[in-house]
Task: structure prediction
Amino acid sequence: RRVRERFPGAQHENVPFIAVTSFLCLRFLSPAIMAPKLFHLRERHADARTSRTLLLLAKAVQNVGNMDTPASRAKEAWMEPLQPTVRQGVAQLKDFITKLVDIEEKEELDLQRTLSLQAPPVKEGPLFIHRTKGKGHLMSSFKKLHFSLTTEALSFAKTPSSKKSALIKLANIRAAEKVEEKSFGSSHVMQVIYEDEAGQAQTVYLQCKCVNELNQWLSALRKVSISNPGLLGSYHPGVFRGDKWSCCHQKDKSDLGCDKTRSRVTLQEWNDPLDHDLEAQLIYRHLLGVEAALREKHRELSAGAETGSARIGPGEAPEDALAQLLQVLRDLQEAHRSGSAC
Result:
């Protein structure tokens, strides 16, 4: 749109497209065609004959990106046999760019709504995950991965830009606690106790780079899981090695923990800027967790009002406020379903 405003004449009809396509082809498509090994498309560099073919292909793509201007044709007259293909490519590319940049207002609002409903990251960064071998036997090595904590799950990937794999669903977390130093020879290890899909208790051990990072991760995990049902009241600060716990020497692996959990102990980051999207996600998730209790309370108040037995102060109607809250929750659920469908 900006380019068209600057060059409104009919002779500049293709200039707005060239502003997009020439850069797109020159910086992204053509380099990948000419040097596929550098973009991890091939295991080795092409031989001389194949390299020449790739060069010609890249030139053809660049001519398409330049909208087949006379200037580009004049430079390489020997590419004349390719002109029918180039012209067909120009028409297809113009149609693609038009669809790419033409966002209707409704579509834009739907996109914004969908993005706003996606779970924002609470905390992310590199951590070392402890691996097990055989029947849960502990190994001393840690593997470095990039972790991301949202209001939905704790996920990991090889790099920040790699596709993430969910490690633990947030609703399944039962505790996040420190691990005693003697267990791994480090004071920066935490454990996340959770239930797997089969309902079995599992533990993953994560090592942080320093004590500050450890406290921040523990705080973040506890904050987002504080309303989870089934939070543990105790845990083992050690590990189960051999046939007993290293902390209390109990031989039963499923034995109750020997130390109290600290699920409500979090950092008070008073200087952190308020993340409105994150706070809204946390409130929404908490309301979903207590929806059944809210509906039961609403029925109780409604029944009490009908019989005259409910205790309501002068000019107050608590069931009305509760009904409004339940309606808001229904609206949020409908919006979330609509956003997911989009």
User: Anything to note?
Assistant: The domain at 1-102 is CATH 1.10.506.10 (GTPase Activation - p120GAP; domain 1). Residues 171 and 309 are 38 Å apart (CA to CA).
